[in-house]
Amino acid sequence: MHKSPTSAFGLLAGVHLRQNGRRLSGVLRQSKLLSGTILVFLFGYCWLSFAIFHRAMQFIGAFPGLGDLLVERMLFILFAFLFALLLISNLVITYSNLFRNRETSFLHSLPMDPNTIFQWKFLESTVVASWAFLFLIAPMLAAYGLVEGVAWSFYPMTLLMILMFVILPGFAGAWAAIGLARYMDRRQFQYSLLAIGVLTLGALAFWLKTEQITDDMLETRVMLVLDRLLKNTQFSQFAFLPSYWLASGVIAWSEGATSSTFFFILVLLSYGLFLGGLTMTLPGHPFYEASSAVQSRGSSMGWRFWHRWRKTPDDPLAQAFGKPSWIHRCMQLLFWIPSDRRSVLVKDVRVFWRDTSQWGQSLLLFGLLAAYIINLKNFSARLNNSFWIHLIAYLNLGACSLNLATLTTRFVFPQFSLEGKRLWIVGMAPIGLNKVIQIKYTLATLVSLILTGALIVLSCYMLRMPVSQMIYFTLVILVMSLSLNGLAMGLGVIYPNFKEDNPSKIVSGFGGTFCLVMSFLYIVGGILCLAIGSPWAQHATFFKTALAWGAFCLLSLLIGYLPYRIGIRRLRYLEI
């Protein structure tokens, strides 16, 4: 008997809810460490972020006549950037969930309407992409309500507006994912995306350029100077941005203007119903065509100039099996590395290149870093106090090290698990699993060190630091690269997940969460040690600096070496 689309959607939802409930109950029964780590991290984050937001809003609000204006502008900017991040997150996750998911391919083989499959995957992707947004802004809104002294009704009304807000970037991300999957193999589409990305970066660099305020300008009216300083933030108050509707509704309710709040609620609701009606009824046929196009193409980025860089080798065995790829030819330049290890490197690079979501997220991450670097020179343009210069230097070190932790957790941790059911092939190779893990660790360390080292050198140059400080922070990043890669690789071997082929889901497990938490704690502890014993501090001594570096190196050794060695020993008892 043929089921209706509603019953089929209910069946999918019921099955996944039961599966997730059983997984959660099983984890709570079996892994006390997982439950305790997650609970401690959640409560610690909520308490720390609430305290920081509350103190910051109290400090900003204390400025007479300007505090309320600065707090409101901060809310507009924060929601605008979070809206942009939600768009990117929904695009990446929805694309992976719709077109790079084994369950989706299995559902296509069933007598099920493609629109029903899309509806369920859209709902699943939106929840996965949006829960972090809710978790991020909850302490901030709680601090804002406490500072403003709002009534209890502020919190449920704000939650309602947020739920209506997060669904809008979900709709946009779903349509963008379908269009990207359908037309990615077209050259004009690829070149257009590349040109748009370059133009966007150039426009951001020009638009976000700060204006230098002279002493003569400070003698004029304060509001005029403030308007000139904040002119680049006026984009966040564009009336057609959903983030503007949410921020305006939150601010209006805190001020007691309930009629304005209900107006913005109705605006969010009307757009949500309109876009939801289109998204829930129309994408079935385009989704099926895009899925067919993705499954039928060999490579989405088969650039022609890569294929032209091929020559027929003189080896008759290589001629019989075909021409080597550009990756293989690049690895052949590393002639001092043994051939068996070069083969492992070729395999890892080729697997990474074939996964669109992997290098796509890398491009997005480095695009955000490029915007950070472009505007970094404005941080120290008018700073003359040594305290603020050193503070910005260590904050820059924190930003670079957090970027390094993001790279290691997102890309290095799932490397061993991505071998999947084919691990026995690698395990039977003469090189052995221990050597394979060492090669993966070496490759990840070199790549992350090159990227993050270039980032720290460029950022120090933009901050106009002397050469001695540039070398100092580069050495710190070198030690952190060794430790964070060892932590990610070791925990990836200790907590493997061979059942999943999606790196995002592998990272979302206990091992990935534990790796992220330990990386964050290591970065905070390491930077605090270095900042306390900074050689450029006012009362710095050689003994104090040496003690701080000794504590930092000992912490790095414990964080990086121990998990890596435990993971290598775990391979002896691994059942393939």
List keywords for this structure.
single chain; 576 residues; mainly alpha; 3 domains; 24 helices; globular
Write the layout of secondary structure elements.
Blueprint: H1 5-30, H2 32-61, H3 67-99, H4 102-108, H5 114-148, H6 154-183, H7 187-207, H8 215-218, H9 222-229, H10 242-254, H11 258-281, H12 284-296, H13 304-308, H14 316-321, H15 326-332, H16 339-354, H17 356-374, H18 386-412, H19 423-427, H20 433-462, H21 467-494, H22 503-507, H23 510-532, H24 542-570
Helix pairs in contact: 1-5, 2-3, 2-5, 2-23, 3-5, 3-6, 3-10, 3-17, 5-6, 5-12, 6-10, 6-11, 6-12, 10-11, 15-16, 16-20, 18-20, 18-21, 18-23, 20-21, 21-23, 21-24, 23-24
What does it look like?
77% of the residues lie in helices and 0% in strands. The protein is an all-alpha fold and 576 residues long. It folds into three domains: 8-15 and 37-299, no CATH class; 322-350, no CATH class; 355-576, no CATH class.
